[in-house]
Amino acid sequence: FELISDEGYRFDGRKPSELRRVRCNMGVFTQADGSAYIEQGNTKVLAAIYGPHEASNNMRSRVCLDKCFINCEFSQAMFSSAERKKRSRGDRKGKDMSAHIKQTFEAAVRTQLYPRSQIDIYLQVLHSDGSLYCACVNAATLALIDAGIAMKDYVCACSASLTKETSLIDINHVEELAGCAEFSAAIMPKLDQIIYSELNGRIHQDELGQLVDAVTNGCKDIFAVIDRFEVITDNTEIAVSPRSLHS
Amino acid sequence: MEDIFKHIQPVEYYKSFLKENIRPDTRTLQQIRKTTLNVGPITTADGSALVKIGNTMVMCGVKAELTQPTAEEPKKGIIVPNLDLPALCSSKFKPGPPNTQAQVGTKFLDNLIKIANLVNSEDLCIVPDKLVWVLYCDVTCLNYDGCVIDAAVVALVAALRSVSLPSVTLNEETDTPVTNINEKTPLTINCLPVASSFSFFESEHIITDPTLSEEDITSGCLTVVSDEHENLLLVDRPGGVSITEDQLEICIQRSFKRTKEVHKLYKAVHKPSESNDQT
Amino acid sequence: MIMKDDMHEVVEQPPTSKFQCEMNALKNADGSAFYSQGETSVMVAVYGPGDLKETKQEIDKALVEVDFRPKLGSPTVNEKYLERFVQGVCENAIMLALHPRTAFAIIVQIMQDQGSLLSCAINAVCVALQDAGVSMKHLPVAVTVALRKESESELEDATDVLIINPTIKEESESFSILTFVFDSVNKNLLCMHSQGPLLPKQHERCLKAAKEATEEVLKFFRDSVTQKVAAGLEL
Q1: Which GO terms describe its molecular function (chain B) (predicted)?
Q2: CA-CA distance, C148 to C146, in Å (whole number)?
Q3: Is residue B6 part of a domain?
């Protein structure tokens, strides 16, 4: 089974440096303060933001006097993958993912502006086809923008894999299972800083530079796609107008 | 200004609208919100449906697995519904184990499946006492704005209707199932129930299809499930202000009307995967 | 009690033999009752109005917490479902505004389930609340009705047998089971739970029959309380 055919095309017909089709929408939910929906190829993720609000009872111990704390919950629908998941949230992988995303956004959100508060990020995966972390981060960025929460910069994430000296960007489920090293990173495109990166698998030290470059380019491409969306400028007007009170 | 009034005095705010026989979202007391049904959005699930009633959004995914039947009913397959109200759908719900409303909703769907005999359990049996299908129906609410049960019922029925099960045979020698994905038979659904919810404001006004803010200030939510032949399958009213029989009668008639409307939706999406339609 | 459709033959069993109740069965609880309807029996304990954590208090009314315990095992989703009905009924019957910032805890222990469980539980809760001396706007009275098809008839409405407070055997033979709760003052419908396919006019018929059956239950309540108070006065 070849990840890249001889002509240089991937299993789903893309070129190695090509992203999957990205479709996104903001303000999908009325209940949440900010919400977004993103589709990267077949991976479909929903993000909902509640906050900044007073810390809920069971998390009162985490309140900080000088900044807000971010609570993230990652949940995967039981029908989202080919095999039914027994537990949609609270399992090891879910908690792992929640912790990573929390760390990512603690670096990106201007937490000093919201002391003593809590911001909840809820992610729901409807359909999983690879690059889950990346789709979640992208969805959460859009949702935070929709909620009007101050951030230092956008956060865009992308994944890449290395095979036969070529790096493949934005890998899907089949490519994930193939067993090559997988590198995901979240960067702030305008500030050009990497705030989170994760490498699964084994690569040679010399290959690392190539992978990081590939991922950075992938993230910048995603940023270009998201930024181009009129959705953001339209939604900004709505976000700036007086918001109704929430209980 | 009106937001502040709404927040401090929700009942008075609502009454001021009722005086003009209209609700804050400009519907009349009997009007139901726009219902949208989309079948087959999730390809990893064997059957799926997304339903929107106004702002309430509910997604149902059905996954079929093979298992051994229970000892009490060796010739029957199993259907397991599950309603999930995650913290993401509303600020009312906090993260943690399933809250009471989700558990009650799950039991409601379970009752409905049994009473309406939605799917013949015998159809799901492959080899009696050894191999049957189990259908896990996971209904997740994505945005909670009242009447989740109504949306959940529509999503569940539409998703089940779009399920096609491959044919399975049991290999006698190795005792393992052999699945033939190319031969798929669609699941037979015996009836198409539709749920309608009503709420009562101070014993006088019947509010059809309440939103979340209306549910909070009214009491006594009545849910009527009926099918296309005007049979009442389930009537649930877990307490609230006392109502007269005439009011109950009115609700039942309105639920029949609504059932007819939703049936148009069911028929329009009869072929799964590509089509979607709205009323 | 079994009533046939044409109303000519009414088979009645002596009403009081079907209901039994013992008030103040548990000394520690504020109010308690051991109530049985036919073979089904339920033990209810009421604690309240009691103190509550400040974060959970409501400033203008009391809260009602219901705990349903099955005969075997720990409570499951089924019990949560039934709890909701009892809670709804109590929230409406009890004068909650008289006891702000408190909570009523109602624990229902199923001792034996031989049919008509929900109505037995609600009636038991009503008796226990009376025993506890809680102020109520009205007394909720519950009746279960079942419809069983006459074996020969094909039509749905011809000669269905209507059974009041069915036993478990009668429930399994019926195609539809309905539980109604009425308030004792205006006889309006407080709460209902029906399952099983039926036509609206069958529904109406059941409602009427249930309403008439509440008289019997109310009379029983009155007799029980009279006995209890009389016994207290004699001491």
Answers
A1: mRNA 3'-UTR AU-rich region binding
A2: 7
A3: no
Encoded tokens for A39: 């589709």
Q: Are B131 and B175 in contact (CB under 8 A)?
A: no
Q: Using a CB–CB cutoff of 8 Å, tell me whether A76 touches chain B.
A: no
CA C98 to chain CA mean position, Å: 24
CATH number for the domain harbouring residue B150: 3.30.230.70
**Domain-located, residue A31:** yes
- Per-residue tokens: C225: 């309380």
Q: How far from the centroid of its chain's Cα atoms is residue B75's Cα?
A: 27
Task: Tell me if chain B has a CB within 8 Å of the CB of C188.
Answer: yes
pTM: 0.86
Q: How many residues does chain B have?
A: 279
CB contact under 8 Å between C197 and B232, yes or no, is: yes
Q: Return the CATH number at A185.
A: 3.30.230.70
The structure tokens 């089904």 sit at C40
Q: Which of B61, B90, B138 faces A31 most closely, judged by CB atoms?
A: B90
pLDDT tens for chain A, 247 residues long, are 677 777 778 888 888 888 999 988 888 888 899 999 999 999 999 999 998 999 887 888 888 899 999 999 999 988 888 888 777 777 888 999 999 999 999 999 999 999 999 999 999 999 999 899 999 999 999 999 889 899 999 999 999 998 878 888 998 888 888 878 889 999 998 888 999 999 988 888 888 898 899 999 999 989 988 887 655 666 565 555 555 444 3
Q: Which strands sit side by side in the sheet containing C176-183, from one edge to the other?
A: B205-208, B194-201, B219-226, B232-237, C189-198, C176-183, C140-148, C161-164, C2-3, C10-11
The count of other CB atoms within 10 Å of the CB of residue C74 is 7
Residue whose tokens read 């995303």: A101
Q: Measured in Å, how far apart are chain C's first and last C-alpha atoms?
A: 37
